[in-house]
Prior knowledge:
By secondary structure, this protein is an alpha/beta fold. Helices cover about 35% and strands about 15% of the residues. The mean pLDDT is about 95. It comes from Sula dactylatra.
Amino acid sequence: MGKRVAVVLAGCGVYDGSEIHESSAVLVHLSREGAQAEVYAPDVDQMHVVDHVKGQPTQEKRNVLVESARIARGNIKDLAKLDVKGLDALIIPGGFGVAKNLSTWATQGKNCIVSKEVEDVLKAFHAAKKPIGLCCISPVLAAKIFPGCELTVGHDTECEKWPYAKTAETMKELGCKHVNKHVTEIHVDVKNKLVTTSAFMCNAPVHEIYDGIGKMVREVVRLA
């Protein structure tokens, strides 16, 4: 039997949900490693819905679980039903939904609240010493919940290639150790079994983002 890995989604689409390319890369690489992905999402309303053509919020209302089901091809469960006992690892792809629907990072930064369901799941995997893979913006969840942990969101100096580098500084303010890494690299916090990679925090070709996520997934499966 291959490893059973929980993948937690936050909707569908970079600006208000899970980043689709990152989510797809996670699922492809898990399949390649012979692991079984079990997809979950919280059954809650999105913070808001963004028109991805205009980049502007709309008046629409959407549900995180219903939208995440688009990526999971309908094969998805309510996050409230996740049981850590039957699972070997956890992976959370990025996208603004992590900062809007799984937490309030988008509006409150380091003073954010992580949704109770998401916090409980992260703490359960951590307590069971099971590996957790996080990419793009999702390492902020660990930064908030596990003080002193080691993470990467890429680089900590803002430039055209690293437009979201201020995130690293905020994570340091939470007491974390941020490690600068290229988009195709990962960082492993051995003590906390956290594996992180920057993904779309970097303005990089999509194949480099895909490769970095592949390394993250391989290491998560290896640690499981």
